[in-house]
């Protein structure tokens, strides 16, 4: 059975979305490949995990890019990230960087490398602190959603989005 690497990674993401451990054997079973077939695509368990993180980030950046104006600034990129995190329903696959404790640093570094251009607005002083606060709101929201810890109603989520945008763009928080 010929399976693309992208299809293989979708099988891996589905395993994570169900909250199951991601192993080469589990991906082989889910994809219909043999374990050597999976290894052919990803090289190793570490290669699998890095590829899955990349795949999840690619899914995120597709949505993030769609939220940007054509003349986007770093502030627009941060605003898109915050809006994405506060308006998307996530699942355990979005916690891919945490899926293997032995690879925590490698996966964290990969996540940071690929998303860093979305996470920082190049300002200083109080406005930078406000923008960092908005990002931390967003990070908490997507983490809770991915972990299945829903703490906000839709109305509250909309209000938090409004507050986050005020933090980013310097408006008075009301």
Name a few traits of the molecule.
HTH-type_TetR-like_transc_reg, mainly alpha, DNA-binding
Description of the structure:
By secondary structure, this protein is mainly α. The chain contains eight helices and no strands. The protein has helices at residues 5-17, 24-31, 35-42, 45-66, 74-87, 104-119, 125-146, 154-169. Helix 1 packs across helix 4 (45-66) and helix 5 (74-87) runs parallel beside helix 7 (125-146). It is elongated and about 55 Å long. The mean pLDDT is 92.
Shape: elongated
Q: In which range does the helix fraction lie?
A: 55-70%
| Radius of gyration (Å) | 18 Å
Amino- and carboxy-terminal Cα gap: 58 Å
Sheet/helix structural class: mainly alpha
The fraction of residues in strands falls at under 5%
What is the strand tally? 0
Low-confidence stretches: none
Average the pLDDT over all residues and give the rounded result.
92
Order of helices and strands: HHHHHHHH
Reported for the largest beta sheet, the result is: none
Number of helices: 8
Organism: Dietzia timorensis
Protein name: TetR family transcriptional regulator
Domain HTH tetR-type: 2-60
Keywords: DNA-binding
